Amino acid sequence: MGKPKVAFFDFACCEGCQLTVIDALQTHVDLLGAVEIVNFREATSRQEHDYQIAFIEGSITREQDEERLYRIREQADLLVALGTCAHLGGVNALKNLHPLEDARRWVYGDKADWYPTYPARPISAVVEVDAIIPGCPIDREEFIRVVKAVLVGKKPPIPDYPVCVECKKKGNVCVYELGRPCLGPVIRAGCGAICPTYGAGCEGCRGLIPHPNEDAMKEVLDEFGLTLDEVMGRFTMFNTYQVQEQAL
Amino acid sequence: MTTVNINVHHVTRVEGHGDIVVDVKNGELIKCQFEVVEAPRFFEAFVRGRPYHELSHITSRICGICAVGHSTASLRATEKALGVEPSEQTVLLRKLLFHGETIDSHVLHTYYLVAPDFLGVPSVIPLVETHLEVVQRALKIKKLSGDLCAMVAGRHTHPIAMAVGGFTHTPTERELRDMQARLVDARADMDETVALFSTLPWPDFERETEYVSLKKDDEYAYIDGTIVTSDGFSYPIEEYRKVTNEECVPFSTAKWTHHNRESYMVGALARFNNNYDQLHPRAKEAAAKLGMKPICYNPFLNSGAQVVEMVHCIEDSIRIVDELLTRGVQPENPPAVEVKACEGVGSCDVPRGILFHNYVYDEDGMCAEANCIIPTNQNMANLNHDMKVLVPQIMDKPQDEIRLTLEMLVRAYDPCISCSAHFLTVTFV
C-alpha cells in the first residue's frame, strides 16, 4: 500500500490553521515522509484530486462553497474539520447576529448584490465530518497527535474534559484571580490552556465539552461577582452558531 | 498573430484565493486581470456591538499571517479613541513582536513561496532533496521568528497577550537573553540569505508608480507615524481616506484604491523606497548586494526589499532586546480604561504594506462602526496595471512561460487575499 494521499482545502477563514500545519510539519519532518501531500494551495503549486484524507479549514458561507465541499466529501475517505471556523463556525458566525441584508449593505453598500453570502455555518452543517481538530488556531502538537492516530486507524485523542484541568496541571494563577473572566471551566481542553498561561481568559474557541458542569461555572462566577450573561457575551465570539441553533 | 488565453484558477503559493485571467487575440490585449474570488467574511459588519477589549482578538482572525499586524493596528485605533497611552515597555515589546511577524512573513514568502519559482520546483518540499541547506536555513529563521512572537505574546497566530494599553504577560530576563543569542547567531543566516537572493534572476520589468507607506523621523516606520507617498504627499493617519479612495470592482471581492495616479503600491518595496535612510547600515549593505537602491520601480523586487527588511528587523530586534535587558522588564497590568463615545484610527505598516483600522465606540465602549483598509486591496489596482504593461512585453513567449511570469508577479506582491476579501469599504454616516 502506498502512502496515504492528503489534501488541504479552505473556505471562509484566515488560513492561520494551515499556517500552523506548516509550522507543525517543520518540527515533525518525519510526518512528511509518512504521507503524500497532493493538494495544499498555500504551500505548493501541486494540485491533484486523488486523495484519501481531506483537511478542511473555514466556514461555509455561500451556495458555491457547498458544491465544492460535496465534491471533496465524495472523494475523501476521511474528512477532518481543521480549526474553529470549520468545526464550529467561529468568528464568521458573528455575522449571523446581524440581519443578513444589513451586514451585506454595511460592507458592500449598493454593490452588495455582487457578493453572494448566507449565514456562516460549520462544515458539519453541510457534510458528514469524520474527525475534528479544534482551536483558533489549532494547536500544533494536537494536530500531530491526531494525524498520527488517524494514520494507524485509531480514534483521534481529543479531550472531553475542560481547559481548567490543563491550566491547574500547569500551576497557573487562575485568571479570575487576576480579575479577568475565563470560559475555562466549560470549554474543551487540548490547547494546553495557552490563553490563561499568557494571562488572558479562555475565549471558548474549542467549543463546549460534552457535559459542561454549569453549576461549577456559576459557583466560580458567584465567587468573583460576575453574571452568566457577562460570560455568555464572551462565549459568542466563537460559538454564535451553536448558541443560535440551541435557541431555535 | 499572437493569441494567448490564460486562466489560472486559484493561484497557488499565495495566501487566499485569486485567479489570473489573460485574453490576447491577434496580438491585441482584450482582457488581463487578477480576480479575487475569496469568500467575503464581513468583519466590519459583525464587530459592531462587540466590546472594545474584544476588537483586537476578533480582528486578528482576519489573517493568520498578519495576525500581529491586525492586532497592533486594532489596539492603536482603540487606544487613540479611548485616550490610552501605552507604557515605554509596551511600545518596545510591541516593536519586537512586530519584527517577529515581519521576519516570519518575509521568510515564508521569500523562501517558501517565491524561491521555488526560481529553482523550478512546485514547492519548498522537493528542495529538501536538492537544496537541503537552503531549506534548513529557512526553517531555522522561521522557527526563530515564531519563537520570538511566542516569547512576547504566546504565539504568532493569533497573539494572546496583546491587550488595550499593554500586555497580559511579560517575557523573563532568561528568555530575553536566550533570544538575544539566537538573534545574533541569525546574522550569519541573513548573510547567506542575501547571498542566495542576490543570485536570483529577477525578471527585468519596470513601471513607474506611486509608493505609499508610513514614515517616522527617528526610525524605519512600522507602527504609527505619518502617511507619505513617493509623489511628495503627506497626511496624518486620521486622514487615510484621502489616500485610499476605495471603489468596488465587479470581478473582485477586494476593493481597489488610487491616490495621485491610477494606482499605487504598498509593502516592503514602498517602505524601502520611502524610508531607505532609516534602514540599519547592515540592511543598506544587503540592498547594495541585491543591486537595489531607491527608487526601485521593479515590482518583482518587492521580494528583494523583504530580504533587506529581514536584515533590518534582526538588527533592530537585537537593539530592542538589549534595551529591554538594560532597563529590565517588569510585569505591568494593562491600565484601567474609562469607556466613552469616541473614534480612533490606528495604522501599521504590516509585512504587505500600510494597514488602517478605524473604529467608532458608543458610550458603553461597544463598537458602533468599523472600517479597515488592507494592504492587498491597495495593491490590487497596481498589480493589474503592471500586468497590462507586462503582458504585451512577453506575449510572444510560450504560453507556459507567460503564465509562470504572471504568477511570479502576483506572488511578488505577496498578496494576502483572505485579508483583502474580509475588509472592504464602509461609508461613515
Walk me through the structure.
The complex is a heterodimer of chains A (248) and B (429). Chain A has 248 residues and is α/β, with parallel strands linked by helices. Chain A has two domains: 147 residues, Rossmann fold (3-Layer(aba) Sandwich), CATH 3.40.50; 85 residues, no CATH class. In chain A, strands 2-1-3-4-5 form a five-stranded parallel sheet. In chain A, α3 links the parallel β3 and β4. Chain B is of the alpha+beta class. In chain B, strands 8-7-6-9 form a four-stranded mixed sheet. Helix content of chain B is 45%, strand content 15%. The C terminus of chain B is likely disordered. Chain B contains 14 helices and twelve strands. Chain B is globular. Chain B has a single domain, classed as Cytochrome-c3 Hydrogenase, chain B. In chain B, β10 and β11 form a beta hairpin. The relative contact order of chain B is 0.20. Classes of the chains: A alpha/beta (248), B alpha+beta (429). At the A-B interface, α1, α5, α8 and α10 of A face α1, α4 and α6 of B.
Q: What is this structure, in a nutshell?
A:
The complex is a heterodimer of chains A (248) and B (429). Chain A is an alpha/beta fold.
What descriptive keywords fit this protein?
heterodimer, A: 248 residues, alpha/beta, Rossmann fold, 2 domains, five-stranded parallel β-sheet, 10 helices, B: 429 residues, alpha+beta, Cytochrome-c3 Hydrogenase, chain B, four-stranded mixed β-sheet, three-stranded antiparallel β-sheet, 14 helices, 12 strands, 45% helix, 15% strand, disordered C terminus
Fold topology:
The complex is a heterodimer of chains A (248) and B (429).
Chain A: E1 5-10, H1 16-27, H2 29-34, E2 36-40, E3 53-57, H3 63-75, E4 78-82, H4 84-88, H5 100-108, E5 131-133, H6 140-151, H7 163-170, H8 194-197, H9 214-223, H10 228-247
Parallel strand pairs in A: 1-2, 1-3, 3-4, 4-5
Helix pairs in contact in A: 1-6
Chain B: E1 4-8, E2 18-25, E3 28-36, H1 43-46, H2 55-59, H3 67-82, H4 88-119, H5 127-130, H6 132-153, E4 162-163, E5 166-167, H7 173-197, E6 210-215, E7 226-229, E8 234-236, H8 241-244, E9 264-265, H9 268-275, H10 281-289, H11 302-327, E10 342-350, E11 353-361, E12 367-373, H12 375-394, H13 399-412, H14 417-422
Parallel strand pairs in B: 6-9
Antiparallel strand pairs in B: 1-2, 2-3, 4-5, 6-7, 7-8, 10-11, 11-12
Helix pairs in contact in B: 3-4, 4-6, 4-11, 4-13, 6-7, 7-11, 9-11, 10-11, 12-13
